[in-house]
Amino acid sequence: MFPLASNFHILVYLTSMEISNMLLSSQNGFVAYIPFLIVIVVIFLKLKGILPLGQESVTTNKYRNESDFFFTKELLIFTTHIILIDGKVSKQETEYVNKFLFREYGKRKQKKFAGVIADYIKNGYNFDLAVRRVNNKCDMSSKLQLLHFLIKVAIVDGYLTDTEYAALSKITQKFNLTYHQLNSILAMYKYTSEKAQREQKKSESKKTTQGSYALKRALMILELDVSASDDQIKKSYRKLVNLHHPDKVLHLDAVQKKSSKEKFLKISEAYELLKSNRKFK
Hints:
This protein is an all-alpha fold. Helices cover 71% and strands 1% of the residues.
């Protein structure tokens, strides 16, 4: 009978009919029934979404006031992925993550997000959905910051396994980033990799000197290999300085800004070392 399906809409219809009848039957209807008119206005505002519509609005918008939840949710999924990639939960990794969450979000949210990670470890998580959401919502600078954090989780114990590197490589590829960008960030830190250990055992007699290693590391930071020309070094430096400039991440939090500044300084130091060694201007 009623064209509106919900009980709420039926209530609006009946209330408006009742008020109309009362207004018609009262000489002073307009003044006497002003409160009822106010009710109608409130109902109208609820229908328009200007005022919340009951309990459903509260649950539907559970995270409306947590502007960081989207990025944090995805960060927790990828963090769990790195923690679990070796088939065991490292104490050093979990302690590092908890300290980061505490510093970033405070004690209450740290406990909440640690619980989310525990749930992901126990019940699993949707890796591919997290990738799609990051690619849809995050720019390159934000994705590099996320990758940077995951790298820190992986090497917090001073060691990078082959499986951890493979996982980071997969995430890099899924984020539409490059392996040069991944290796550039890795080269900014001191750690021992399983791959390096394996190569060292195969060629103990071919150890590089500290100086040549520093130059190779500087080239890696600039996303180049040992065959790079002076012009390629200059071009890559200009590109990376622009990409990693602190001004690019002003919309992120203080920790991420600090991380971006750290990368910016590493890039500048690498360029100055190569510039000095190759004697170009």
